[in-house]
Amino acid sequence: MPHNKDFKRYLKTFLGFSPFARMKISSVLMKTFFFFFFFVFPRLAASREHDFTFNGFSNTDLSIDGIASVTPDGLLELTNKTQNMRGHAFYPRPLRFKSATGRPLSFSTTFVFAILSEVSDLSGQGIAFFVSHTANLSLPSPSQYLGLFTESNNGNSSNHIVAVEFDTIQNPEFQDINDNHVGIDINGLISNKSSPAGYYNDSTDSLQNLTLISGNPMQAWVDFDGEAMQINVTLSPMGIPKPRRPLLSSTIDLSSVMLDSMHVGFSSSDGPFHTQHYILGWSFKTNGVARPLDYSKLPSLPVLKTTRKSVVMVTSLAIVSCLFVLFVAAVTFLIVRRRNKYAEVLEDWELDYGPHRFSYKDLFQATKGFKEENLLGTGGFGRVYKGELPNSKMEIAVKKISHDSRQGMREFVAEIVSIGQLRHRNLVQLLGYCRRKGEFLLVYDFMANGSLDKFLYGKKNPTVNWAQRFRIIKGVASGLLYLHEDWEQVVLHRDIKASNVLLDGDFTGKLGDFGLAKLYDRGSDPQTTRIVGTMGYLAPELPMTGKGSTMTDVFAFGVFLFEVVCGRRPIEFQAEAEDLILVDWVLENWKRGLLMETVDQRLTEYCVDEVELVLKLALLCSHPMPEVRPNMRQVVQILDGAVELPELLPRCMSFSSMSLYQKVGFDNYIMSLTSSASTLPAMSGGR
Question: What is the pTM of this model?
Answer without folding.
Answer: 0.49
